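Worked example 3 (structure in, sequence out).
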């Protein structure tokens, strides 16, 4: 795919959706594409563009177009084109899967190395920093408005940790510069969507850090949060953003694990690697996916079961890494 316009021309109804529990890149890419296609409605013959995402934090209300995102899946629309963004597999589409299954044409745009290329048209760039970076290359630059640039920029800063993660490339910075040239208030976007936290979010962060555990001689840090604790703080899973990154920066840690309970004996697992451990490989083993240094999955059982099932995979990789270095 070279241009998104060529893939949707003639489509009357278009649906856009991202993964369950959407993050900044997912929200940014879905919002940016929605705003972009709305510009071309008359030219491309589009009558309707709908975006479906699960509910997300108010910090993303800074973006134009997010108020038009649909959070319910109770209509029975049948779309000419369904576009999946930032989603590695069909099961990650959640309730939007029914619209995918009914669509005449499906498109998959992503940057996850574990992407399963599940659509009719697949455009996956595994070395891109974010889906927003991939999406930028599929748009006509002259039609990227200030509002679209803001959405793309937010997606990029969230998946690169404001350009500090190893997935940040020269191309990433060039694109960010071009987005800034559109006149976006980039400092405000960073502060309000990435760094700004509510008092409750900081309370939860502090508690998760205090109750974290160092294992494997300090090479792995693990923290978790229960549904009971979330209920106590009257918080949602969107309030947990950023906790895994605070765990990751603990000195000496090779792998950070954050486990959040989503249902009875049902957990969302987030993993970050600081060194050579491939957490994507571990996530894929348990039915998830992601990147070499940032990945996640869902797991069932007790909290101890989850930790005990994950740690042997990390230990095995650390052992292999040590053996390779000793042979070098």
């Amino acid at each position: 795919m070279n241009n998104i316009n060529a893939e949707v021309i003639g489509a009357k109804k278009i649906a856009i959706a991202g993964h369950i529990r959407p993050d900044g890149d997912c929200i940014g890419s879905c919002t940016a594409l929605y705003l972009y296609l709305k510009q071309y409605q008359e030219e491309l013959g589009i009558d309707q563009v709908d975006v479906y995402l699960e509910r997300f934090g108010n910090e993303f209300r800074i973006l134009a177009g997010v108020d038009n995102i649909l959070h319910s899946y109770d209509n029975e629309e049948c779309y000419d084109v369904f576009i999946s963004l930032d989603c590695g597999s069909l099961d990650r589409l959640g309730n939007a899967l029914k619209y995918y299954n009914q669509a005449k044409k499906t498109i998959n745009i992503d940057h996850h190395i574990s992407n399963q290329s599940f659509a009719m048209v697949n455009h996956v760039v595994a070395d891109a920093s974010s889906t927003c970076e991939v999406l930028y290359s599929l748009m006509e630059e002259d039609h990227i408005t200030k509002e679209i640039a803001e959405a793309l920029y937010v997606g990029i800063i969230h998946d690169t940790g404001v350009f500090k993660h190893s997935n940040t490339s020269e191309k990433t910075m060039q694109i960010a510069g071009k987005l800034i040239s559109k006149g976006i208030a980039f400092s405000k976007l960073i502060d309000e969507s990435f760094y700004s936290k509510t008092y409750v979010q900081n309370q939860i962060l502090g508690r998760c850090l205090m109750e974290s555990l160092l294992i494997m001689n300090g090479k792995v840090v693990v923290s978790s949060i229960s549904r009971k604790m979330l209920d106590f703080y009257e918080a949602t899973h969107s309030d947990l953003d950023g906790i895994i990154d605070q765990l990751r920066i603990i000195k000496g840690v090779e792998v950070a694990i954050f486990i959040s309970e989503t249902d009875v004996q049902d957990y969302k697992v987030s993993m970050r690697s600081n060194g050579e451990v491939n957490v994507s490989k571990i996530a894929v083993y348990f039915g998830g996916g992601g990147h070499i240094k940032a990945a996640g999955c869902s797991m069932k059982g007790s909290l101890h079961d989850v930790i005990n099932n994950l740690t042997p995979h990390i230990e095995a990789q650390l052992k292999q890494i040590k053996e390779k270095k000793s042979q070098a």
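Notes: Residues 303-327 form the longest helix (25 residues). The mean pLDDT is 95.
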